[in-house]
């Protein structure tokens, strides 16, 4: 970097805003993480549910730069809602949001032919562009030689080699950003936008120009990854591929219990110590009850499951970062096709294991509207991480902690896997019905790029887990905290009359509500305490666990909570009731956030109401059958 350029820089008065643009699987998110680290936040674009990741970094010249990571796209000729957002951001079509001052277009150096057309389109926007040639280490390993200077001359934009997964791999990009940002302070107004929706003639012209540029800049195309080809020969084999995928998923759910046991125990003991300390330090009264029975018992009942949720997200992030996620979609294409779904539906459905909200939003990658709607309607049947605390609590209470199959498989993990499998099979069954009734139509073939296998970046994995932990704890500290205070109030007032029999909560507003709902839920074996927990559980699934913690803390069995909520439930519920509640949550109507996203994604109240109706019917029916059959078999 020239000292003359940056010796006395004129810093911009307002932090410049850069858009990070590129094809899917080009390493764009890794580059974003390398630039911003933990200084990033996730929000939504105004008026849509597409997530936007924004961050900041300080350049070598001391310029504070804002950067936004846009959804991956192959062209500004948008064909899906995600691609539409990228197009509208760079064109400045969002109200009250100016277009970015500059763009960094990220391209996979091993596959320039696929990426350069987007660069040519972005050039027509009339704003400064930097082309980041990412994965240069992989390109060199494959003997792929790109002349960055010749490419820059052919394109007319700065070209910088990068390796986003290495600490020093973005130094050159930071230097070039400095040069571009400082040049912007003295430049005239940006050129007028010359982009328009390309016609077939324009597309052919783009392809010819790409070939001309490659002839000038690509010295050697190199060889495809031999390791990727050999691994795919095994993992995509018809006889090996699917069993291996199911084994990976099975091990993932085993790990949810095995790996999280120690940190969960530490959190549980810590919360017990805090609750006991607060109870001993405060005099009897409303404040002590609010703190120990409402906040600590309620919020603490959910926070304890953070390790399990992080284990689940760890596996999902690993599948994405290694490149195996796309292979899973390819492997399941035939299975999905058997029920009429598009192969791309696998990625939204797998994302729904984390949360149905991003899973539903990920369905935007499916171009066909009927296939997209069918995927949206079944995505909530995947077992999201919010159900995990409910499953774990009931399994811990009623399933013994022992191994089967010669000590190789944990029984609790096996039950968890069965619950996840039940959600998957029910989703496929519902899709089969929908695709042969409401969403009839020919199934489109699956066309997708299979990225090369990559070693996951520990930094990216840790940042992803940090972001998920932050979201989970923020939810526990806001939504769940507020609901627990409200539930404590409803469970404490009005106070029980003098000489009243039974726990005081029976006479409270919450107790009245629970007893009023009990006749409706008694055919499926639910108690009045469960009825109370289901109501706030509509705000967020995991709130049901917090609600049970608060309800039992306010009841006469509250003292037992100093040991374990699972122990309280094991003593208070029958096994058929526990099994019935598990069946309910496999099909349970979704939380308010999910339903609101369904409404926004489909732009219709109708599909949201259809989802509520069919999932409620499935949940009640499954719980009824489970309770009646298990009661008959167990003699209960």
Q: What is the makeup of the main sheet?
A: 7 strands, mixed
Radius of gyration: 28 Å
Specify the oligomeric state: single chain
Low-pLDDT regions: 1-7, 44-49, 557-562
Percent of residues in beta strands? 5-15%
**How much helix, percentage-wise, in residues?**
55-70%
Mean of all residue-level pLDDT scores: 81
First-to-last CA distance? 78 Å
- How many DSSP helices? 28
Describe the strand arrangement of the main beta sheet, using strand numbers.
2-3-4-1-5-6-8
The structural class is alpha/beta
How does the overall form come out from the CA principal axes?
A: globular
Count of β-strands? 11
Structural overview:
The chain is of the alpha/beta class. The protein has helices at residues 3-6, 28-36, 81-91, 112-123, 136-141, 148-155, 171-186, 200-217, 226-235, 241-258, 261-281, 286-303, 306-322, 324-331, 333-338, 346-351, 356-362, 369-378, 388-398, 411-435, 458-492, 509-521, 528-534, 543-553, 565-572, 575-587, 592-602, 605-634; strands at 17-22, 40-44, 51-58, 64-69, 102-108, 129-134, 145-146, 159-161, 218-220, 403-404, 409-410. A hairpin with a 5-residue loop joins strand 3 (51-58) and strand 4. Helix 12 (286-303) runs antiparallel to helix 21 (458-492) and helix 22 (509-521) crosses helix 23 (528-534). The radius of gyration is 28 Å and the shape is globular. Mean pLDDT is 81; it is low at 1-7, 44-49 and 557-562.
């Amino acid at each position: 970097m020239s000292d003359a350029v940056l010796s006395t820089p004129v810093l911009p008065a307002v932090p410049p805003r850069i858009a990070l643009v590129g094809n899917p699987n080009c390493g764009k998110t890794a580059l974003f993480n390398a630039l911003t680290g933990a200084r990033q936040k996730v929000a939504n674009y105004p008026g849509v549910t597409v997530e936007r990741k924004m961050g900041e970094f300080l350049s070598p010249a001391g310029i504070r730069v804002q950067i936004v990571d846009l959804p991956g796209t192959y062209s500004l000729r948008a064909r899906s809602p995600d691609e539409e957002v990228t197009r509208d951001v760079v064109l400045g079509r969002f109200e009250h949001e100016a277009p970015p001052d500059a763009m960094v277009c990220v391209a996979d150096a091993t596959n320039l032919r696929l990426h350069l057309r987007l660069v040519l389109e972005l050039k027509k926007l009339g704003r400064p562009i930097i082309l980041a040639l990412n994965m240069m280490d992989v390109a060199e390993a494959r003997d792929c030689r790109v002349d960055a200077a010749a490419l820059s001359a052919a394109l007319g934009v700065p070209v910088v080699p990068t390796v986003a997964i290495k600490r020093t791999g973005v130094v050159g990009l930071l230097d070039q950003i400095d040069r571009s940002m400082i040049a912007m302070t003295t430049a005239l107004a940006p050129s007028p936008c010359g982009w328009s929706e390309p016609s077939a003639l324009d597309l052919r012209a783009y392809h010819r120009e790409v070939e001309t540029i490659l002839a000038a800049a690509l010295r050697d195309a190199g060889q495809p990854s031999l390791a990727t080809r050999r691994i795919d020969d095994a993992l995509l084999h018809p006889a090996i591929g699917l069993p291996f995928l199911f084994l990976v998923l099975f091990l993932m759910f085993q790990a949810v219990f095995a790996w999280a046991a120690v940190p969960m125990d530490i959190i549980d003991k810590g919360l017990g110590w805090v609750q006991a300390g607060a109870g001993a330090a405060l005099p009897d009264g409303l404040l002590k009850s609010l703190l120990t029975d409402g906040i600590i018992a309620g919020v603490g009942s959910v926070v304890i499951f953070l390790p399990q949720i992080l284990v689940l997200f760890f596996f999902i992030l690993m599948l994405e970062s290694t490149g195996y996620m796309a292979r899973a979609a390819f492997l399941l294409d035939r299975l999905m096709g058997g029920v009429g779904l598009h192969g791309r539906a696998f990625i939204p459905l797998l994302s729904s294991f984390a949360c149905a909200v991003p899973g539903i939003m990920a369905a935007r990658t499916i171009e066909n509207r009927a296939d997209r709607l069918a995927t949206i309607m079944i995505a909530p049947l995947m077992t999201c991480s919010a159900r995990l605390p409910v499953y774990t609590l009931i399994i811990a209470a009623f399933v013994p902690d022992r191994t089967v199959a010669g000590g190789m498989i944990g029984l609790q993990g096996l039950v968890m896997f069965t619950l996840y499998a039940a959600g998957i099979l029910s989703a496929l069954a519902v899709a089969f019905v929908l695709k042969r009734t409401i969403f009839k139509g020919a199934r489109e073939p699956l066309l997708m790029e299979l990225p090369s296998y990559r070693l996951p970046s520990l930094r990216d994995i840790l940042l992803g887990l940090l972001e998920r932990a932050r979201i989970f704890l923020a939810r526990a500290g806001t939504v769940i905290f507020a609901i627990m205070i409200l539930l404590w109030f409803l469970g404490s007032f009005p106070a029980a009359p003098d000489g009243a029999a039974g726990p005081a909560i029976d006479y409270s507003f919450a107790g009245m509500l629970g007893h009023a709902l009990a006749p409706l839920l008694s055919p499926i074996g639910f108690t009045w305490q469960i009825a109370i927990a289901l109501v706030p559980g509509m705000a967020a699934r995991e709130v049901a666990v917090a609600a049970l913690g608060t309800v039992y803390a306010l009841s006469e069995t509250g003292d037992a909570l100093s040991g374990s909520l699972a122990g309280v439930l094991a003593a208070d519920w029958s096994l058929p009731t526990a099994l019935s509640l598990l069946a309910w949550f496999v099909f349970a109507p979704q939380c308010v956030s999910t339903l609101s996203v369904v409404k926004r994604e489909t732009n219709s109240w109708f599909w949201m109401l259809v989802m509520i109706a069919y999932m409620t019917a499935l949940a009640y029916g499954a719980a009824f059958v489970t309770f009646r059959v298990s009661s008959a078999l167990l003699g209960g």
